[in-house]
Design brief:
about 15% strand; alpha+beta; about 600 residues; 19 strands; about 40% helix
Amino acid sequence: MTILTELSRLYDRLQTTGDAPPPGYSMENIGGEVVLDRAGRVLAIRDLRVADEKGKPRPRKMAVPQAVKRTAGVKPNMFWDKSAYVLGVTLLKDARGKPILDDDGQLIFGQEKRTSQEHAAFVQAHDALLAGAEDAGLRALLGFVQTWQPDMFGQNGHAPDLLDENLVFRLDGDFDENRQPRFIHDRAATRQLLQRGASGEADTALCLISGTNGPVARLHPSIKGVMGAQSSGASLVAFNAAAYESFGKSQGENAPVSQSAAFAYGTALNVLLANGSGRNLRIGDSTVVFWAETPDTGAAQGIDEMLFGALNPPDEAAETARLRATLENIAEGRPAGPEFAPETRVFILGLAPNAARLSVRFWLPGTLGDFARHVTRFWADLALEPPAWKGPPAAWSLLYEVAMQRKAENIPPRLGGELMQAVLRGSPYPRTLLSGVIQRIRADGDINRKRVAILTAYIRRNLQEKEFPMSLDRDNPNPAYRLGRLFAVLEGIQLKALPGLNATIKDRYFAAASATPARVFPLLVKTGTHHLSKLRKDDGGGLAHWFDAEMGAIWAGLEANLPRALNLEDQGRFIAGYYHQRWAKKDTNDDVIDNGSTQP
């Protein structure tokens, strides 16, 4: 219950700062308002949408009574809902779900298969809830559900633009203490009514989150915004089949969480997952949220921005430099600003969709100082000369190097979560990262600097070779590294002796040479000797002499019997050695293999 406890505590802080709705409410997209007189007659249906950056109207986020879990069947929300429930009217759509237009290009509205049933459920629920209400706003809404008929929408000439949007109600002339229009769901009488009805039939038990007795949540809240999960939301906690229940208890009673605690953790998580919150990002198949535990709103915002920047570094060079400096100062315990106290607790949660509920990919509580040390170490692991990235890389960017065609949908499902745990815990990188890069190199032949940096990072951390070279190391004694260098030299000889080749030994023999060198290298060396002989005749021996000396220096560090097979780790060294030699510079500042070429 640690995750739920910390999210519940976060809700308390968010509510204090006004960033989360009050208990029993949730933030929903609202498109319009139905304005009622005191008798419940509709005076107007007005647009509440706001224009986005392109001028297109978008629904407004608003705190309304908590949305019901609507997976199947008909179930109305209280005091708000889409137009089919509220008005009994919807836009008519074709087989593809697109609105139908008449001959004049106007939207056609009416009732679809379930519209009348949905409106009847809305009327019945409010008729029962509001019976005997004395508040003017509640009585107006009661009058509406008792007198409104769906055909009144067309008779009164209401525009169809807001159909299928979520609608709320407002009593005409009703304002709050700031002289702002007040909706019926925000009236004090409405909140009291909702609080009385929330726990009326729920069993009471000891809450596993708060440790206090209270009404138990039978169904836990829907979490929205997790990539790949249902757009209507998915549960983080659910007992949706008898196989998951025990001791005769049903659904939420199997792990009792009070209604207030369930609401708190669900609301906090939805706030973190909201678009534009700056507290979430996507890594592989995981949606990652993060937050800091501090009562200072300004400090919390500064830390959240820093966490987001560390996980997804900005492109602008000056911002990147400031971010790196801040993290390095925090990691070393140096002053980095009053809001960046190294002992501040931070939390990082990775969620992924699953068949029954959301799956927790990783849960990483820690301190800001630990986070900074692990992230800066991750960047140091990837050091290459010249750098593989323009600035500090985001962890998610590594995943594209193991995906076919570098498409997000081809990233191995669990790799994102495993990589993030390694980055943020300082633990070894997953071996699937190493094997994935090598497999992609074998498949597409692209040995670019990003892939080499990943292999280098794996060797430095997992094999504890912190001094593994960033660029060509002529004194490195490792046989696999030297064989990679030798392969690059042999390819260079071939390219210079036979310019204009469509395919080199790299295209035909790289995979075999890096896996079974004893079987392949004798043939490659024999062929390289012939190419070297031709090169001596063509250029007078200058370049051929350099290649000959380079091969001799590499052979001097190898044993007579070449390795029969190289494991994945040594194949990584082989690729790094090849890349370093391939892009090393001669004394003339020309590339070893081809002059004036650009590094991948």
